[in-house]
User: Fold this.
Amino acid sequence: MDRRDFLKTVGIASGTILAQNVSLKAKETSKKGEFVGILIDTTRCVGCRTCEQVCSEVNDLPEPDWELDVLEQERKTTEKQFTLINGFETNQGEVFIKRQCMHCSQPACASACLTKAMFKTLEGPVVWKPNKCMGCRYCMISCPFNIPKFEHHSYNPKIQKCSMCWERLKEGMKPACVENCPAEALLFGKRRELIEIARTRIFENPDSYIHHIYGEHEVGGTSILYLANTPFENLGLRSDLGDRPIPELTTDFLYGVPIVLTLWPAFLLALSNSTKSKETYSESED
Assistant:
């Protein structure tokens, strides 16, 4: 193989991979609809746990433990409880915060799902399709908020988490927790509009809020947004996630894998053929 054939072999392989990468990036940047979301104002939450009750009713889950003191320990969502209230003693007094799936704008769980059983809807909620799930549980490992839960004791296990009442949304209703919050601590709407409302509240009451909307930029943005009068790490929310979406952290690596797997064999093949040509030429001289 001469120099021209060598370069042609490598060039064809490079062109193929680059075309694949352009196609993948084009899919990633395709136009999406405007996401809906929920604004949670922790300064208005009274810790009544009505959201827990209605969530259990709508999703046919066990009754919440009403004897539990939410200020005693921080709880995590489970396969039997999709949302919950935690209470914290802070420098601003008792503060209650609702926890559930954050419905990330670029969810790591959906990116990690090999069968697209976990996916981001065009409207915003991140939902799970049981008929597509292969049970790998990569969604659980990849979630930075530790939300998806597996039904370990079920004969037909599911991945369970808040869906933002996706079925209700398709019928034109609000999420059950928002609709039934007596303190109006929850507000449902378009994510962009919720951010504007949150900014307005901060601007009009600068001493009542820290000047940060949690979820506006964290991990690329989430559909669940928080306002608070104390730093969010005091309320059990992670402050070390950064603004870059989790799936983007692996993009360069994933694009590099096919390049290595394709170009490296092509390079070795071209090098081998070139070596064989030289050996053949030397034998003919002899």
Notes: The beta strands are 36-41, 84-90, 93-99, 118-120, 126-128, 149-150, 159-160, 186-190, 224-227.
